[in-house]
Design goal:
alpha+beta; four-stranded antiparallel sheet; 4 helices; about 15% helix
Length: about 250
């Protein structure tokens, strides 16, 4: 491709098409030293197995991470699986297509990010394996938001720093021209309403030339009226395909 405005348009069109229009644009421009892009995208669109009836939706207040109070549509339901550990309580809500939504409300004073930072894969599987089958009076806000970030620092901290430096070895791609990863852009979109959930994510890696069952009778209540963690899980394996934090809903 010529890597001019027409290529920017071609990339953005591909991203939009492959996220069902939820992420309409990835790039504004292509830098002069860009040599290659590796882009992947995923889109998720599922309906609740039991959608919310109109009489179970009402105005409520959500306290955002910055302390502001936001008036939002709150959806009420009775779910059948309760999640908990020493710092969180939550619930599962199923979709029709073999997936399940997990909502996790950290204890008062703990942010969703702090909770996730202390959550290992093994701990998550323990929470899901030990879920309690009981009635859960669940209240969840309708929400929709977009999030984007540049992942160079995060990936470097995870051990990939060489790939972003002049010492990078991508000779398998080009033996004649020294290459490194210039940036890794990630964008997500999620919306949750009375009918179901839509979510999408797209990641772009830019390569540059380096010239530069009932256990007991109980009932629980979970009200998501402050920042929380949400996940979309495969219902068979209980492995997450989407993890995010909801800090604001308006």
């Amino acid at each position: 491709a010529p890597f001019d405005k027409s290529t920017v348009h071609e990339i953005n069109t591909w991203v939009s098409d492959n996220t069902d229009g939820m992420i309409p644009k990835l790039l504004d421009e292509i830098s002069q030293d860009s040599m290659m892009y590796l882009i992947n995208a995923v889109a998720f669109d599922a309906k609740w197995a039991v959608p919310y009836d109109d009489d179970r939706i009402d105005d409520g207040v959500f306290t955002a991470a910055d302390g502001s109070e936001q008036v939002v549509k709150m959806m009420q339901s009775t779910e059948g699986q309760f999640l908990s550990d020493d710092h969180m309580r939550g619930f599962l809500k199923y979709y029709t297509e073999g997936y399940v939504f997990a909502a996790m409300l950290p204890e008062e004073g703990m942010t969703p990010e702090a909770y996730l930072n202390g959550l290992t894969g093994d701990a998550l599987q323990t929470i899901l394996r030990d879920r309690v089958f009981c009635d859960v009076d669940a209240t969840m806000p309708q929400f929709s938001f977009d999030y984007g970030t540049e992942l160079t620092d995060a990936l470097s901290a995870m051990g990939m720093s060489r790939a972003f430096s002049s010492d990078a070895d991508f000779s398998g791609i080009s033996a004649d021209m020294p290459l490194c990863i210039g940036s890794v852009q990630h964008k997500t979109h999620i919306e949750v309403d009375a009918q179901g959930t839509k979510a999408a994510a797209v990641t772009s890696v830019e390569v540059r030339c380096t010239s530069a069952m009932l256990e007991e009778v109980r009932r629980e209540t979970v009200v998501l009226d402050r920042p929380f963690v949400c996940m979309i899980l495969d219902a068979d394996t209980m492995l997450p395909i989407f993890i995010g934090t909801v800090n604001t809903v308006a």
